[in-house]
Design goal:
The structure is a single chain. This protein has about 60 residues and is an all-alpha fold. The chain has one domain. It is built from 3 helices and no strands. The relative contact order is 0.10.
């Protein structure tokens, strides 16, 4: 749970800075957020979560 909240905050900050810098428009940000929301409700959610957990677990071993 803590990893998920941290990643959501990280991606939210990246999205915020992309919007502020003008690199990403509001329409594109809405599409990206919608895509992530609907992707989370598909069968791809579990492999994506497993990959994220594996990456987070591997970081201390670098």
């Amino acid at each position: 749970m803590a990893i998920t909240v941290s990643l959501v905050l990280l991606f939210g900050l990246v999205l915020f800075f992309l919007l502020r810098s003008g690199s990403l428009g509001y329409g594109s940000a809405f599409i990206a957020a919608g895509f992530g929301f609907f992707l989370a409700s598909t069968g791809a959610a579990e492999p994506i979560n497993n990959l994220a957990h594996a990456v987070v677990d591997a970081i201390p071993n670098l």
